[in-house]
Design brief:
Blueprint: H1 3-10, H2 13-20, E1 24-29, E2 32-37, H3 40-62, E3 67-72, H4 76-86, E4 100-101, H5 120-131, E5 139-143, H6 150-164, E6 170-174, H7 175-187, H8 191-199, E7 204-208, H9 217-232, E8 236-241, H10 253-260, E9 263-266, H11 272-286, H12 292-301, H13 306-323, H14 329-336, H15 348-359, H16 363-366, H17 373-389, H18 394-400, H19 405-420, H20 424-437
Helix pairs in contact: 1-3, 5-6, 7-8, 11-12, 11-13, 12-14, 13-14, 15-17, 17-19, 18-19
Length: about 450
């Protein structure tokens, strides 16, 4: 019996598929069996949790005591494949195209994702789904606030599948893309081609921002049918959203059931150690040599999300380059002060007071049942600013305005849509945001 067969009998199916199945034999060296793991993260997890079990299984299969050494790297089989691939001309270093939808960013791979306590389960689940060609768990729902890495993990799955299973057809799109494409297909009388594309010619669907479909009943119905077809065919699906399916208002029960049928994994904000590792990874991959004290300062000050963290790093590097100066703490502070939002003194009550003063309404109006547009719009803006500048939940914000959390979510979407239109309303929101950030409440 092979070593993997022995381990498969002892481990739960999902644990075997996630950690043991990707391991490959590399070589025998100095009386030890060398096994190749896909990456450093999996090597550490395997060593910590399954190292002794693997060694016992190897010794049992060999009939004598055998040491096992884990490495990060390709197996001999993979090396032979790479040698064969070397004969082919390499593609330029560009973003990876998908069979349909948007491009995959070339830097959004598993190797470039820094794993911390905030994201280790999501990373493991995404890697497991990407690495296995067959499995009972083929759907994953990535949940996080904006800028914490759900798009990175989603696209990393696409990259991995392209490399491991090059014949798979991967579609990476947003929910808005899906809706617009469906609408255009109806207008051009080509809905049959649209259905065939996603139901028959798609092996992997990476669907971003599913909360966008709130209230879009026609698109919800079409997507539900598409997902049912893909799931029945055992295709892989990854969704991403800022909200749980149960928190998305005006979502039909059929689609909600489809979204909840997969594994739901949340990505939280990274802690200090993870933020520091992200900065060091960014510095290494971009070729910049930042002093340790500057990296530590950025990691301690830029705490909102990964996007803000990298923005600060890029800002420091750009300013140093433009001024021709060294990267030091003084320069880093000058960049950070323009990025970090001063949230001291920003409360739900202070936001209400600012909005009431700007729109000339009363706090009683904001919390009243009134649906007059002159009241609804200020109320929505106040809810939006409350979500942006405080750490309160949707439920807490909604309760503060005598509204359900679903109404709060609807308000956030309405304001976000208005801001995207880049008209007078966007300027109103920017003005109020600036007042909050400068403490002029």
């Amino acid at each position: 019996m092979s070593v993997k067969s022995l381990l498969k009998e002892k481990l739960p199916g999902h644990s075997y598929r996630m950690w043991i199945d990707p391991i490959e034999f590399s070589k025998n060296e100095n009386g030890a069996m060398v096994l190749a793991c896909p990456n450093l993260f999996s090597k550490k997890r395997i060593s910590d949790n399954y190292g002794q079990m693997i060694e016992d299984a190897v010794s049992s299969a060999a009939g004598k005591a055998f040491k096992v050494r884990l490495i990060v790297g390709p197996s001999q089989t993979m090396e032979r494949k790479e040698i064969e691939q070397e004969r082919q001309m390499k593609l330029p270093d560009i973003d990876m195209p998908t069979n349909g939808g948007r491009l995959l960013r070339k830097d959004y791979t598993f190797d470039q994702f820094v794993v911390g306590k905030n994201s280790d389960f999501a990373y493991s689940a995404a890697l497991s789904l990407a690495a296995s060609n067959l499995g009972s768990q083929n759907a994953l729902y990535l949940l996080s606030k904006t800028g914490l890495g759900k798009s990175h993990l989603s696209q990393a799955v696409g990259h991995h599948i392209y490399q491991a299973f090059p014949n798979e057809r991967v579609y990476y799109i947003t929910a808005e893309d899906f809706m617009n494409e469906m609408t255009d297909s109806y207008r051009s009388s080509s809905i049959h081609r649209f259905k065939e594309k996603y139901r028959q010619n798609c092996d992997v669907l990476l669907l971003e921002d599913v909360h966008f479909l709130s209230g879009k009943s026609g698109t919800q119905e079409e997507l539900s049918n598409t997902l049912e077809t893909l799931m029945n065919a055992n295709k892989k699906i990854i969704y991403s959203s800022n909200y749980l399916p149960s928190d998305i208002p005006k979502l039909n029960d059929k689609l909600k059931s489809r979204l909840c049928s997969g594994l739901i994994s949340k990505i939280d904000a990274p802690d200090y150690k993870t933020r520091l590792r992200i900065l060091k990874k960014t510095a290494s991959s971009s070729g910049y040599d930042f002093p340790e004290e500057v990296l530590q300062y950025l990691a301690s000050e830029l705490t909102d999300d990964v996007r803000q963290l990298k923005s600060g790093f890029i800002g420091v590097a750009a300013k140093a380059s433009l001024l021709g100066s060294d990267v030091d703490l003084a320069l880093a502070r000058s960049v950070v002060k323009n990025i970090v939002t001063s949230r001291e003194g920003i409360t739900l009550d202070s936001i209400k007071r600012l909005v009431c003063k700007y729109y000339n309404v009363s706090i009683v109006d904001l919390t009243s049942p009134s649906r007059r547009q002159s009241i609804v719009r200020p109320r929505q803006v106040a809810m939006y600013l409350s979500r942006r500048y405080t750490d309160h939940s949707l439920q807490t914000i909604g309760k503060s305005f005598n509204r359900y959390h679903a109404t709060t979510l609807h308000a956030l979407k309405a304001v976000e849509k208005g801001v995207k239109e880049k008209g007078p309303f966007q300027k109103h929101v920017e003005f109020l945001s600036e007042r909050l950030e400068k403490g002029k409440i």
